[in-house]
Design goal:
74 residues; 2 strands
């Protein structure tokens, strides 16, 4: 599958992402990221967007490692 460009709005910023996913997949990614960012901001209203994004990345990496460990144990 060839690479495509996708424009995603994350928070208040727009990003161009290059990948081989579908439009539906990238929309789901955008929605998930925005929902998680909103949850972080709701719990910590004064957190900067940058720090919220770093916390989100840490949470998603942790989730990915947990899922990978579960798969490796099967």
């Amino acid at each position: 599958m060839s690479k495509r460009r996708f424009k995603l709005k994350i928070g208040t910023e727009e990003y161009t992402v290059i990948g081989d996913g579908t439009t539906e997949h990238m929309n789901a990614v955008s929605e998930l990221v925005n929902n998680k960012l909103e949850m972080i901001k709701a719990q910590m209203p004064t957190i900067s967007n940058e720090k919220a994004a770093v916390l989100l990345a840490i949470n998603l990496a942790s989730n990915q490692l947990e899922l990978q460990q579960e798969l490796d144990e099967k």
